Amino acid sequence: MGGVFHASILFLVAAGLQVVFGVQKIFNLACGSFYALGAYAGASAVAYFTGHGGSPALFIVPLALGGLAVGLVGVVVERGLLRFVYDRDETFQLLLTFALVLMLEDLIRMTWGTAPVSTGGLYLSYGQARLLGATVPVYNLIVIAASLAIALAIGWLLTRTAFGRIIRASADNREMAEALGVDMRWVYVRVFTLGTMLGTLGGALVIPATAAMSEMGIELIVEAFAVVVIGGLGSMRGAFVGALVVGIFRSVAIAVYPELEMLLIYLIVIAVLLWRPRGLFGAAAA
Amino acid sequence: MRAAVTLALVGIAIAALPRLAPAYYVTLMLPFMAYGVVLLGLNLLFGYTGLVSFGHALFIGIGAYTGAVLTTRFGIRQMELILPAAALAAAVVAAPVGALCVRYVKIYFGMLTLAFGMVFYTFLLKFYKLTGGDEGMRMLRPYLLGQSWEGFSKTAYLIGPYYYFSLAVLVLATLLMWRIVRSPFGLCLKTIRDNPLKAESLGVSVPRYRWYAFMISAVYAAAGGALLATPTGNVDPTLAYWTHSGNIVFMVLLGGFASFFGPLLGAFVFIFLQDTVMSVFPYWRLVFGAILAVIVIFAPGGLMGFFARRTVTPVSRA
User: Fold this and answer.
1) Which of A152, A202, B96, B193 is a plausible cystine mate for A13, CB 3.0–4.6 Å?
2) Hey, is the C-beta of B130 within 8 angstroms of any chain A C-beta?
3) Residue B49 counted as domain residue
4) pLDDT digits (tens, 9 = 90+) for A58-74
5) pLDDT attached to residue A1
6) How far apart are CA B97 and CA B94, in angstroms?
7) CB atoms within 10 A of CB B179
């Protein structure tokens, strides 16, 4: 079950990575940093909430809101940095997101210091449940359910709404979408902010189960990266399946042979890249 | 002609530095020279072949750990043996890894190299008995030219014999790379970068040449990694971490990937600027991230790009 919890967090971050790659064709190395940012913001929001007499039972509300609110930084990043490089080579786009990784890591250190930040003992405030013979914190189940709901909501957004159609059209053929009167600047800002918010929400939701550390972002990016490679770049279904594969294999490996933990994940990544370079759900053509 | 004079002056300045500058700045030159070797190789891949590796720290790690293992486990202390051993180890790893990676270009090449780099990183981290885990291993002071230099203090050793040894390695590596990029082989790489289809139709085996370039750059990175380990005296897994790979790509871009000497300038500026920034402000990543963003957006040619714009080159040799 720990694997599924981890998978649902990974899915959120990877989904953010995918939607941005799908539309803007930018592989955002900074998605892990957004995740870390969300974690710290969520922890701060909870601390403020409980510090002002909020009921501990409701801590998940400020947690999620804090995570989502800090996701608005995506607007600043897109307008302030990314919009200059859409016409450039992928290499430069990748390096620009690497610049973001460097900056965000230190901004987090400046704001929250280097000591780990946690939400205290709130993790188990919803109690534990017995499921399939294992004891699982109820909080984990809530996060898994929320992640599933978000997955469904994204699916609905992409396939059933006008905005979703515009996103898919822009992902397929940017020029054509523009020629048909879609304002790309508007689409890019929204898509990037959506992607950022998914990452920051993922970070906020993970925090009660662990503690926020400034390195958590650059560590998560390699896992999120494994998810999207296994699933296929730009594919939402791929993010979902990839997250499950990585989350479950990771927890199995930890239980069976800890030394193999991440090694196993990377070996799967390499195998997938060699066998199906576009991932399990990637588009057939470039 | 002007370039030759500039080079000669820079060379004299570097050779005379230990006599002129405080020891602290002289020791800062050591990572510069080590990274210089790494970046010469990396730029063969990045600037000349058009492939961006986000996992090159893998080979720095291999070189550094080769040095550490040889000096501590096998009692082999001669730097003249460590460098070829590091190069050989890198070549052995790079042959299969490169053969797989060069089947892809652009973002997929970057991702695959990143994945291989992280495989090695986790190996270093998790196989504690072999590698010392996150604490890493010690790198004993290597012998140079068959001498142990026991009488020298650590600083005297580093700013004396080791400085000139590193410099000699860097000069040799530079001369060799100069020959490589001017050779028919180097020209083939440039053709592959600019127009792979045309290169293929002219009879150049694109994957094979990319593979050669990958191997050469891996060997350079390992030699640089072995040089890098001595001044710190310790090697740890972060040498192979993906952000380290990102930093060396950053150095290349900072100096200018379109120029032969750009990466060397990039390494120099990166190391001295990092030292300066860290002495006044603890958050060097913030400053460097901003610098990288500015370079990417406004000056993709890097520092060398500024020189190139001012001096008029009659024939484009890019």
Assistant:
1) A202
2) no
3) yes
4) 788 888 888 888 888 88
5) 64
6) 5
7) 11
